[in-house]
Amino acid sequence: MSRLVVWHDPPPERVGSSAVELLRNLGGPGAIFVRGEDSSRTRVLVTLLHGNEPSGVRAMHAWLRRGRVPRVDCVWIVGAVDAALEPPGFAFRHLPGRPDLNRCFRPPYEGVDGAIARAILELLDRTSPEAILDLHNNTGHNPPYGIATRADGTTRGLCAWFGERLVKSDLDLGALVEVSVRGAPSVTIECGLAGDFEADRVALRGVEALLASDSIVPEGARDVAVYDHPVRVSVRSGIDLAIAAVPRSGVGLTLAWNVDRHNWTEVGPGTTIGWVNTGGAWPVEALTPDGADISRDLFETDDGVLRTRRSLIPIMITTDAAIAASDCLFYVVRRSQ
Ligand SMILES: [Zn+2]
C-alpha cells in the first residue's frame, strides 16, 4: 500500500498561499503530478526529505502557484511533511525518535520511514523518469552545488541549472541519490543555507528553467567543475569542540570561527584551521571513502595551532558547533582531472 498522498494538476486553492499551507493541505508525504506539453517523458523533483530544508518546497509552491505548464510531465515528491510542519516549522530534519528519511532508501525499509522510502522508489520505477533532482539546503555558507554518484554529461548538465560545482561521491548512506532508476541521471542539489533568501532563489530559478526546457541539459551552459574523492573531517571522539575567534583554554579543539571563508577554495599548506591544547590529544580524523584516516597527512599541530600540511579544498564547512560535533567539520575534496 502506498503511503503517498497523490495529487494531479492541483488547482490554486489546493496549492494555497504559502508552502506551509500547501503542506497542511497535502497532510503527509505526497506526489504531485503535473501534466506537461509532452507527456511521453517525465522528470521527478524531490523536496523535503529533510524537514528543515525548505528551499525546494518553497520553489515547488511558487512554481505550482504560477500555474506553469512544464515542457514534459513532472512529478513533485514531498518527503518529511510531518517534520517540516512540527512547530516552529522547518526546524526538524526528522521528528525526534524517527530516522533520517534520506537514509532509508535501501532495505530493509523498516517502519513508517522505510515504507515512505519504498513508496517513493516504487513511484520512481513506475514513472521511469528521464531525470531525478533532489533539492536540499545545508548548514554553512556554501555556494549551490550538486552531489551525484556519477559525473557524465547529462548528470553535469542537470546540476548546471543550479550551480557550477558537482561533487562525485560513492556514497553508501541509503540516500535517494544513490539509487539508480533505469540509468536516469540523479543529482542532489544543495541550494545553500537553509532559510537564506538566496538559496530559495537558486532553487526556484533552477526549477523554472529546467521545467520550461525541452532538454535536461541547459543550452550553452558552462560545464560544471567536478570534485571527487571526498574525505570526511570530524572531531575525534572524546575531544570537546568550540568555535571561536581565539583559542579557548582547556578545550580540545577550537575551530576558527571564520574558517568557512575557505569553503571551496584551495588553501595552501600552513593555513590555520584552529587551536588545540598544547600537548593534548590529536584532535581530528579524516576518513577516506575506504575508511582510512589520513588526518596526519592533511594537518599538523604546532605550538597549539592546527594547520594544513598541504594544499587542500575544504567544502561544506559548518561553523555550527552542535552540527560540527555531531556530524562532521567539513569535507576535503580534490578537483577531478
Ligand atoms: Zn538535506
Key features of this structure:
twelve-stranded mixed sheet; 9 helices; alpha/beta; single chain; five-stranded mixed sheet; globular; binds zinc ion; 2 domains
Order of helices and strands: EHHEEHEHHEEHEEHEEEEEHEEEHE
The average pLDDT score comes to 94
Unreliable runs, pLDDT <50, ≥5 residues? none
CATH architecture of the largest domain: 3-Layer(aba) Sandwich
According to CATH, the homologous superfamily of the largest domain is: Zn peptidases
Tally of discrete structural domains:
2
Secondary structure layout:
Layout: E1 5-8, H1 12-15, H2 19-26, E2 30-34, E3 38-47, H3 55-65, E4 72-78, H4 81-85, H5 111-127, E5 131-138, E6 145-148, H6 153-160, E7 165-168, E8 186-193, H7 197-212, E9 225-235, E10 241-244, E11 253-256, E12 272-276, E13 284-287, H8 295-298, E14 299-302, E15 305-308, E16 313-315, H9 321-326, E17 330-335
Parallel strand pairs: 1-2, 3-4, 3-5, 5-8, 6-7, 7-9, 10-11
Antiparallel strand pairs: 2-4, 6-8, 9-13, 9-17, 11-12, 12-15, 14-15, 16-17
Helix pairs in contact: 3-7
Bound molecules: zinc ion.
What does this structure look like?
With 337 residues, this protein is of the alpha/beta class. The chain has helices at 12-15, 19-26, 55-65, 81-85, 111-127, 153-160, 197-212, 295-298, 321-326, and strands spanning 5-8, 30-34, 38-47, 72-78, 131-138, 145-148, 165-168, 186-193, 225-235, 241-244, 253-256, 272-276, 284-287, 299-302, 305-308, 313-315, 330-335. Helix content is 23%, strand content 28%. Strands 1, 2, 3, 4, 5, 6, 7, 8, 9, 13, 16 and 17 form a 12-stranded mixed β-sheet that branches. A 5-stranded mixed β-sheet has the order 10-11-12-15-14. It has 2 domains: 5-223, Aminopeptidase, CATH 3.40.630; 228-335, no CATH class. The chain is built from 9 helices and 17 strands. The longest helix has 17 residues, at 111-127. Zinc ion binds at residues 50, 53, 136.
